[in-house]
User: What shape does this take?
Amino acid sequence: MKIKIDFHTHCLESTGDSVPRIGTVREIVKQIRKRGLDGIAITDHDKKDYAYRVKEMVDLHFPGEFVILPGQEICINRQHVVELYLENDSVFRFCAHPLFGSRFLEFIKEEGDNIHGIEIKNAAWQLQEDKVNEIAKRYNLITLKNSDAHSIREIGIHYNEIDLEELYRRCNGTKCSNP
Ligand SMILES: [Zn+2]
Assistant: This one.
């Protein structure tokens, strides 16, 4: 079943909470509803604990209503990569806002099957969509549209309509680099 989901949001960086408060979680949920989404991934820089806590709170207070995928945005060889932690312990990874610096292609080749997707839209950056499509085709990457929200109201500016099974299928067997 296809759902509407934004895979790249900085909820911790949007709120400044060190631990999510229920009021913050309600605001996040309100914004997800307002955009008509089924869920979001929470992908702060080099931190995943906040995302897991928000997921726990949403699952507790809004059971069965929203999909919250914990993740984080990390740097691998100076490239920004978003990791999403799926339920069977596999990890879906995509290139965030690719700017095609000189080492980009080398990076994609080196990572091989460890990268599964690439952003074609990101509300914080103007991306070269033709080039993204070309690379996606060449390296068999799924193209993604995300907000990269750094404030709650930016959540869901862009989103994907996708069956989550597609993520599981793409990253089958890829495990977390720093569990
Ligand atoms: Zn980001």
Notes: The chain has a mean pLDDT of 94. The beta strands are 2-6, 39-42, 67-76, 79-85, 91-95, 117-122, 142-146, 160-163. The two ends are 29 Å apart (CA to CA).
